[in-house]
Amino acid sequence: MTAVQKLRSMLADPDKFIACPGVYDGFTARIALQEGVDCLYMTGAGTTMSRLGMADMGIATMNDMKANAEMIANLDPSIPLIADADTGYGGPIMAGRTVAQYIRAGVAGLHLEDQVVNKRCGHLNGKELVSIAEYASRIKAAAMAREKHGDIVIIARTDAFQGYGYDEAIKRLQAAIAEGADVCFLEGVTTREDAERACKELAPTPCLFNNVPGGVSPDFGVKECRELGYKLAIFPCLAFEMVYPAVRKAVQQLKTTGNVGPAEENGRRYGPRELFQVCGLDGMIGFDQAAGGNSYAKGA
């Protein structure tokens, strides 16, 4: 099966829950793939911070996001990648172009939201939204592009809950379903009761939960998500939340002691070979040798 077929199969399996670790570059994606995950999630916040060194305030362009998604999706094309596509980066024509580009990049699923184009992270305050009609047109444009260019799972995200309330958020997601959305993403839900209610009211369309520690939503894990009726969950901060304290600690050690201590309490350090192996060193050498190359005849 293709990646998108595999994602659709998992969504259709009544016994399957999809937990997607958030990755933001090739190395974090390779680490997750090494652990045998079913699906990856490319975080927009992590992409913006890693590629641009800036906060997630609507700064990344479609080209920034698509380039990162294409690289990650093709590290292992058999593993589905769900990628943030923000607002679609413009009107219907641009939203359709974004979907077409993501399809060509090998992305299995993407989510589109109802914020204005100059958006911000869903767990910050002061978000502005487009009208429900404009939001529906984004989803319709995405579905039209999918029909023309190939398959992709369309995830409709609304940020209406915080500023406009539950009923308006559900109304927007129902409008998105009517225009062809496959999955619903109610951003910023704050209680178990509203989460469970949304999953029931939007059924049979599967719902996605966004796990953002320190954000506005509860820290629901896989067990809680299953109980509430969610079909999948993304953990966008998984990689960069862990990287931040580790790298910060190492830099502090270098400044204070003149050297870097072990990353783990057991005192183990990681050399280049092991780290390169995570990123395909052995397979690359094997490919070179199978093709008749001799660059690594004496090893590496």
Automatic annotation (TrEMBL):
Q: Which SUPFAM superfamilies match?
A: Phosphoenolpyruvate/pyruvate domain
**Which reaction(s) are listed as its catalytic activity?**
(2S,3R)-3-hydroxybutane-1,2,3-tricarboxylate = pyruvate + succinate
Single GO MF descriptor: methylisocitrate lyase activity
Report the protein name in the record.
Carboxyvinyl-carboxyphosphonate phosphorylmutase
User: To which species is this protein native?
Assistant: Didymella exigua CBS 183.55
